[in-house]
Sequence to fold (126 residues):
Amino acid sequence: MKLKTVIPSPIEMDTILVISDYVQALKAEVGEPLRRLYPNAEIRFCLFDGELLNELTSGLLPILILMDMGADNLLIMKELRSFACLSRTPMLMLRAEATKRKVEAESEGIGWLYNTLNTHHQYQLN
Fold:
């Protein structure tokens, strides 16, 4: 009997990193919509402490980083952008006022998030 080697497609190895001080609340809020948008991606939630460093040094760089809003988090986002390996990784702030207004303007609750993530995903495939 010959065994067949299965190599996972790149999308099956994608990781989306969600960074927040309120991981449990954010899991409940955005976890399910993200899983529907990216069914083959691994959604990882982590805190702004050593856990973030562990995630980033695990060798699996995320295709997208979502961060909770806040002035401190904006500084962290700028620091993350300075690393060459993350300079092209899209980083979005969750719950920012502009994002709230954009989402409210959409007729479908997660329409804006879906369009943004879907556009990014199509860009990654091309």
Residues 23-37 form the longest helix (15 residues). Helices lie at 23-37, 50-56, 71-82, 97-105, 111-125. Confidence is low (pLDDT under 50) at residues 1-12.
